[in-house]
Each structure stands twice: as structure tokens, then as C-alpha cells.
Amino acid sequence: QGSLKRGLDHSTSIPPLQTPLSSYQLRRRQLENNQIKHIQLGFCESCFNGSDYAKLCQALRNNKSLTTVEIGWELPRSILLNILDCVARLPCLQSLSLLCYTNLPRRLLRRLVSKSSLSHLELRNIAIGPSPWKERLILNA
């Protein structure tokens, strides 16, 4: 009876509940662990806040697996510039799509298009302009 009870105790133990990861948490974890090659940002993500994007940028800075990045129209300008700065540092970037933005700083665009690994670049509704002083500070940080 004692050995049967011990066996039942082990088989009836309930694993701890795990809360499902949000799409943001899942993306961030995948970036941090170099588990994905493709990411889309700025498409229907209005629930993300500035802090979420700052943490995503940190994960992007250390990522070594991304080859394809698509960026949509829903990112605020300051967040967009920070993300593009991180994207310009991705060592394996092969494909970049930027959709529906205006007035990208020339210096940032030069950094992106001069990546030797980049083989596909898609720009839609992009204007190229000089960088205001404040944007230069963001990109050099």
C-alpha cells in the first residue's frame, strides 16, 4: 500500500501553471535566443508601448539570426529610427522592407543600403531627407 501510494503521489502531481506568452514576449524571447530569421514590426501592434519597443531593440542589437525584416506604418517615428539603427547592425540581414514612412535620414538609409549582406530592399512611400539634430543624437546613442 505504501509503494502504491508513493506511485500515485508522483502520477497525480500537477505541473505548475504557466501563463501563455504574449506575442510581444514570444517575439522578444525568439530574438534573444536567435530562434527566428524573419520578423515583422509595425503592423497592427498598437498595443505595444515605448518600453516594449525599447526591449525589442535591445534584443535586436544582440540578434545574430535575422535575415528578413519587414517594418510597417504603425511605428512612431522615434521608435522607427531606433529600430532601423538596430536593423542596420544585424550581421545576417538579407532582406529589408520599409513601408509607408517619410523623411528617413540620409545617413541611416546609407547605413542600411551599404550592408554587404543585403540582397533585397523594398521601400514604399519613403522620402529621404536631412537628419534633424535630435535624430542624430538618437542614432549615435
Termini distance?
A: 68 Å
Instruction: Give the strand line-up of the largest sheet.
Output: 1-2-3-5
What level of helicity do the residues show? 40-55%
Instruction: Supply the number of helical segments.
Output: 6
Order of helices and strands: HHEHEHEEHEEH
Strand content: 15-25%
Oligomer: single chain
Question: Which structural category do the helix and sheet elements fall into?
Answer: alpha/beta
How big is the Rg?
21 Å
- Mean pLDDT, to the nearest integer, reads 80
Give the low-pLDDT segments: 3-10, 133-138
Shape: globular
Reported for the largest beta sheet, the result is:
4 strands, parallel
- The total of beta strands comes to 6
Question: Describe it for me?
Answer:
With 141 residues, this protein is α/β, with parallel strands linked by helices. Helices cover 43% and strands 16% of the residues. It has six helices and six strands. Helix 2 runs parallel beside helix 3 (50-61) and helix 3 (50-61) packs parallel to helix 4.
Which helices and strands occur, and which strands form pairs?
Blueprint: H1 2-11, H2 23-32, E1 38-41, H3 50-61, E2 68-71, H4 77-88, E3 95-99, E4 104-105, H5 106-113, E5 120-124, E6 128-129, H6 133-140
Parallel strand pairs: 1-2, 2-3, 3-5, 4-6
